[in-house]
Amino acid sequence: MENNNKEVLLKVDHLCQYFGFNKAVDDVSFEVHKGEVFGLVGESGCGKTTTGRTIIRLYNPTSGSVYFKGQRVAAGTMSYKKAIGEAEASIKALKKELKGADDGQRKDEILKEIEAKKEFIKEQKHEIKSALHDQKHCDKDLITKIQMIFQDPIASLDPRMTVRDIIAEGLVINGMKDKKEIDEKVYKMLELVGLVKEHASRYPHEFSGGQKQRIGVARAVIMEPELIIADEPVSALDVSIQAQVINLLNDLREELGLTLLFIAHDLSVVKYFSDRIGVMYYGKLVELADADELFKNPLHPYTKSLLSAIPLPDPAYEKQRQRIVYNPLASHDYSQEGPTLKEIKPGHFVYCNSAEFEQYSKELK
Q1: For the segment 9-24, what is each residue's pLDDT rounded down to a tens digit?
Q2: Which contacts of 358-363 are long-range, i.e. CB under 8 A and separated by 24 or more positions?
Q3: Taking the C-alpha atoms of 195, 196, 197 and 202 in order, what is their torsion angle to the nearest 10 degrees?
Q4: Burial of 287 (0-12, 13-18, 19+ CB in 10 A)
Q5: How confident is the model at residue 106 (pLDDT cuts 50, 70, 90)?
Q6: CB 337 within 8 A of CB 348
Q7: Model confidence pLDDT, tens digit, residues 27-73
Q8: What pLDDT does 365 receive?
């Protein structure tokens, strides 16, 4: 879907994550290139965090696949099961039609259709088997190359563990036993994130919010990941501390060659930090483009609404600022044709139908 000249580190392919009737993530696809920061934005409850947690397999996907470095690391089977169910229902209807058919030619056609449906069911069952096998037997060392920084620095740290044990936990789980080597790595990480080695013996409650988030960053980075999923890493922090954590992530990105999936609802932060941005609304990816392009030419009404909500430190501007309210029922007519993610110009994708595509194309011109 994106620029093929860049190495794709993470590929999310038709990802769905349903909780009962709630479609938290619904048919989302995007790619993250090696070395870039991919921002994922949207209002609270739109499915950003669920997408991140599903990628790292804290949730098993309902449907779709996640590929990391070309290997499938997570897969759901619902779409295959649904296709099997539809094919079986179709076979029943064809068998019923076969009983009442008098024309020999039509009987032959029906029999061919039934055989084709049976072959399709066999293929779908093979896909289910393959998906479950890939998920169960994917390289565990590969999975550790994806790490997550969680949104709430207080809730994500065990209050009964020392900072040393929190940061070293991943190493211990992965079989490292040399206490001296572990301590050296922990001290190095603490210094890397702007803390000191004396902090290693303390407990989380002895630190400020910003320091706790630095501990969370150290815990992720110590595993030497290639991809970090940063789930709103600054939303619980004061503005001055937000800047420190963002600058820290930027420095680590340069120093360690990290790739980041940066999840946030603050578009001004995302613009500063991201190379490309995906906008989510109610589980759907509604727009995807380079950061500069998205801010210069927002096309989807929801993106325009989000951008209109960004405050600026200018009282005169703020007095004049017009908020754009997004009303899906008023903004779209999908009674004749449903929307899909379409490429409106190279690298710029919008969730729309053909009529909207024409309208957005005119807006760009």
Answers
A1: 999 999 999 998 999 9
A2: 360/299, 363/297, 363/299
A3: -70
A4: buried
A5: confident
A6: no
A7: 999 999 999 999 999 988 899 999 999 999 899 899 999 999 999 99
A8: 79
275-329: pLDDT as tens digits: 999 999 999 999 999 999 999 999 999 999 998 888 888 888 888 888 889 999 9
Q: State how far the alpha carbon of 48 is from the alpha carbons of 59, 94, 265, 289, 348, in Å.
A: 13, 43, 9, 17, 20
* H-helix or E-strand spanning residue 123: helix 104-137
The answer for residues whose C-beta is within 8 angstroms of residue 218's C-beta and 6 or more apart is 167, 186, 189, 190, 192, 193, 195
Tokens linked to 242: 């937000």
Q: What is the mean pLDDT of residues 247-251?
A: 86
Q: Which residue in 182, 200, 261, 249 sits closest to 221, CA to CA?
A: 249
Measured in residues, the chain has a length of 365
Cβ neighbourhood burial of 222 (10 Å; 0-12, 13-18, 19+): buried
User: Residue 344: beta bridge partners?
Assistant: none
Amino acid at 267: L
The distance from CA 341 to its chain's CA centroid, rounded to whole angstroms, is 16
Helix (H) or strand (E) holding 85: helix 78-100
Question: Token pair for residue 277?
Answer: 């941005």
